[in-house]
Amino acid sequence: MSIDIHIDRILRSKRRTVSIEVTREAHLIVRAPLRAPSEEIEEFVEKKRLWIIQKQREAEARLERATPKSFIDDENFYFLGNTYPLKIVDNGEPALTFDTVFRLSREYLKYARELFITWYKEQAYKKIGERLHHFSSLSDIDFNKFRITNAQRRWGSCNIKSNIFFSWRLIMAPIPVVDYVVVHELVHIEEKSHSHKFWNGVAEILPDYRLHRQWLKENGYLLVL
Fold it and tell me: Whole-model pTM?
């Protein structure tokens, strides 16, 4: 039986060709020229049927593995690219501590998620701030200020006031990946679009940025709480 291919969204622009993307949520996005007829889009999608099905199955499998944490003994949590086990302890003070093992007081178990988010945010502010200042000095690109946010779909962003924002989830990734996102947003201060000039600017600071961008594409779904 043939599997139906559902297009979740069609984005039309002044581009010349049709392209497709399977998002991490397994949605199918089609980018097409402004006047491309529906028949042309459907024909293109049909030609890519096997690729689309494969990518959607891979995305669905990743989503199944990226389940929210249960906060139980020996459950692993990411921090700077490594995983560390959680131990539930009696009479722990403070409520959550870390020294190669996370220790959570049983008394505060019902607040586990909030405690972890607070801890991750504190670590993100320190470490990401440190890397941001380092690369700002190295590149001579100045920023105004930065914040750690609760963003779920963006690792980083910046605005016209040269303020930079990073999701606290980024602190779960390896330092080279953190550096890539930091440099990405710094370069956006000078180049707003993802033009060749933008990517050349990223490459001047981080020649191997493609490797770390790929890591984030392949493993970002794991950085959940």
Answer: 0.76
